[in-house]
Hints:
Helix content: 25-40%
Strand order of the largest sheet: 6-7-8-9-10-5-11
Strand content: 25-35%
Number of helices: 7
Distance between the termini: 46 Å
Number of strands: 11
Low-confidence stretches: none
Shape: globular
Radius of gyration: 17 Å
Oligomer: single chain
Largest sheet: 7 strands, mixed
Amino acid sequence: xxxxxxTDNLIFPPINGAEDGIVAIGGDLSVERLLVAYKSGIFPWYxxxxxxxxxxxxxxxxxxxxxxxxxxxMHRVLNSNKFKITFDENFEFVINQCAxxxxxxxxxxxxxxxxxxxxxxxxxxxxxxxxxIWKEDTIVGxxxxxxxxxxxxxxxxxxxxxxxxxxxxxxxxAFLKQHNFTFLDAQVFSEHVATMGAHEIxxxxxxxxxKDELNYPSLIGKWSV
Length: 225
């Protein structure tokens, strides 16, 4: 089927017919368009020198917060005083670390400068959030994502200290569960998140979850532990 080319209008085509999960190309990364996209089960993901590509995968990778698995080794880390956690203390540092950290079997990054600028604006509007994991006075891990209604869309994570990103994900999941979120959307398969109990669900099932969670007010503004 032909690929839908976005116009200045803040609308997306139906996602059911998205070939290979690609809904549309083009448009912009304005706060308004990003919010419409996430509410529609769509997110941007593309490489340098490409147009913006908007995705809604046929299989969505989600972590149900009631089913999260914590290993014995991570329980020991959680019960130690090795790390401390903050939310929304240094969003720009976290997203830049996610963009620049070296990853195995990955060349370059999809977190381009325009993506950093766009999600930083979402953060300023209170919809994008960061988790910082500290070892003494240094941020050694973290993640960032978008929250609308009671949905959290995890975008990327990093660590420079072993277990720091898992610590961030576990602590964030506990926070979300405390505020009555039911799932965390990891979008596409990640072995790291899979070890904690995330699994793929069909797109229509994900959209039903999304629809339910969007019925609630968004937790806008700075989050705190």
